[in-house]
Structures are given as structure tokens and as C-alpha cells.
């Protein structure tokens, strides 16, 4: 009796296991091909996150897009309003405007000190040394002054070429080549050479006074130059040719100036010789009247009057050209 009961229990267990295994399969038609079970869908595996990367937030689909309109050009600012005038009428009995003025002039001493002043006067007493008077109070002798300024220009104190004498030169033009001049008064004895309104000095030209046949005083303006603030030199074509060797245009002008100088010198020699010979013939007791040589000397002596102005013009043009191209 126990054996059939055990067999029945074993049969139930086997039938239950077969039924449990057949549950996932769908209903199968009779006589049809057996169905292949579908493969399970793989689960998405998230990508490994890097430690150094920054998490990016997902885009916000609900955020509305912002449309950026182009900025308009800035409006031009209005010009500043002019300053309002100040009402400052002049008191009765007084001139309009102030009577004060800023410091205008400078005086430099040879020891390096520089003084500023509103007024600078040059005093030349009859006895004693010449001196400068600043604002009517401070006094400096010219021997201790290196340069000074006043209402007439800029002046320097320096020694002249080939001389140990110190003189006061007025600055005429500034640049790599600066021009300086000194004006003196000379006496021309009767019978000397020269013509009214002209005189000649070494390194420059004079104007004013009378020469032949009159005697008197004449003003002679002698000119000098300085290159790169160096020592003073005589204003001659030869010296300028040495100073402007690096400028072909200035050299050509100075060659013409030197040619005018040679012609001037020859005119003085020839004209002077004719004039002396004419005077000797005129004063001869055996001759009546003025010798023709005297009249022949006059046009020859007028040649330097014309060429001196051309020579000076060429020199100044060469200096201006040199200063402009450096």
C-alpha cells in the first residue's frame, strides 16, 4: 500500500515541474512550427561618469528663447557749454585789464644759476663795468652772465673767434646752425671807400652811415654762426662749407656764394686801383679836369654792392635748407 502512494506523489511532483517550465511559452498551434522564444530587451547601462567633468544640466525646454535686439549707436554728446563770462568792470579812473604779467625773461649766470624776471635792463655806466638790472633790484655784472633775455631778444656772452675778448651776441636764428650777430658803430674818415647805406665787416655786413666822399659814423652788423651749440665761428662761405658737408643742396648754394665773394674782392681791388689812378691824374698839374679813370672806377665799385646782397642771400638760404633737412 505504501509503494503505490509514493509513486503517485512522485508522479504529481514531476507533472508540476513540467507545467511550471511550460508556462513562459505561448500557446502553440497543433501541426505548426515550433516558435522561437524572443530574446529579452537589454537594459540601458549608464556611461561611466568622469571624476573631473562637470555635470551638465539638461536643457530647459520650458525656458523661452530670448531675442537680443541690436543696440543702437550712442547718441552724440552735446558740446560743452561755453564758460559764462565774468562780470568784472574796470573801476572808474583805471585802465581795463590787469597791470600784472607773468615772468617772461631769464638770466643765466656762468655758475649755472638761472633767474627769472619781468624786466631786464642793460646798464652801461660812464665809469665802471656794465651790468644787468633785474626788476630794478637785483644786479649782475656782464662778466658773470652767460646769457640773458630782454624785450629785444636773446643774447649770449662768449669770446669771439681768434680773440680772447668776450662780447655780447644777439641770437638771430635757431637750429642746428644758429645765427648770431653783433652791432658796432665805426667811424669812416673822409675819402674812405664805401657808399651811403652800406658797410662791410669781416663775417658780416653793415648798414647805415656814409663813406666816400663823406666822413662820419656807420653801423656795422657782423654775423657769426654756431653749429650744434658749439663755438662761435665767422660767417664765411668757407666755414659754412665745412659745417654743411653732409648736405649737397647747401653746398651748391655756398659754392655760388663763395664765387660772389671772389668777384667782390676783385671788384674792390680793380675799382680801388682805377680810383686811385684817376685821382692821381686829376691832381696832376699838367692835366686839366677829372681823369676818365675816376668815372670808370665808379661802376666797378658798385658791383660789390649787388653781389654782397646775393652772397648773404645764398648763405641764409643754405642755412635754412640745412636746418630744414636735419
From TrEMBL:
<feature type="region of interest" description="Disordered">
    <location>
        <begin position="21"/>
        <end position="63"/>
    </location>
</feature>
<keyword id="KW-0732">Signal</keyword>
<keyword id="KW-0812">Transmembrane</keyword>
<feature type="signal peptide">
    <location>
        <begin position="1"/>
        <end position="22"/>
    </location>
</feature>
<keyword id="KW-0472">Membrane</keyword>
<keyword id="KW-1133">Transmembrane helix</keyword>
<protein>
    <recommendedName>
        <fullName>DUF4178 domain-containing protein</fullName>
    </recommendedName>
</protein>
<feature type="compositionally biased region" description="Pro residues">
    <location>
        <begin position="37"/>
        <end position="47"/>
    </location>
</feature>
<feature type="transmembrane region" description="Helical">
    <location>
        <begin position="289"/>
        <end position="307"/>
    </location>
</feature>
